[in-house]
Amino acid sequence: MDLNIGDVIKMKKPHPCGANEWEILRTGMDFRLKCVGCGHQVMVSRKLVEKNFRGIVKKA
């Protein structure tokens, strides 16, 4: 999977704020994602991101 810092991706389940688009802030074994809707940041394992990934909305 070729995901880079600055990409905006779409995930399977929406964030509680209603947005399901996330900006990638950090990659590695874990991803740091920022919700496009409310700006909340979360750390998620690579395995979980690859499982729930639905597509790239915008390339960096």
Order of helices and strands: EEEEHE
Beta fraction of the residues? over 45%
> Which structural class should the secondary elements be placed in?
mainly beta
* Main sheet attributes: strand count, strand direction, barrel closure: 5 strands, antiparallel
Mean pLDDT: 94
**Helix percentage range:** 10-25%
* Strand order in space, largest sheet: 4-3-2-1-5
Number of strands: 5
Distance separating the two termini: 15 Å
Shape, principal axes of CA atoms: globular
3D architecture notes:
- The structure is a single chain.
- The protein has one helix at 46-52, and strands at 8-11, 21-26, 30-35, 41-45, 53-58.
- It is globular.
- A five-stranded antiparallel beta sheet has the order 4-3-2-1-5.
- The relative contact order is 0.33.
- The protein is mainly β.
Keywords summarizing the entry:
single chain; 60 residues; mainly beta; five-stranded antiparallel beta sheet; 1 helix
List the helices and strands and how they pair.
Blueprint: E1 8-11, E2 21-26, E3 30-35, E4 41-45, H1 46-52, E5 53-58
Antiparallel strand pairs: 1-2, 1-5, 2-3, 3-4
Give the gist of this structure.
This protein has 60 residues and is mainly beta. The chain has 1 helix and 5 strands.
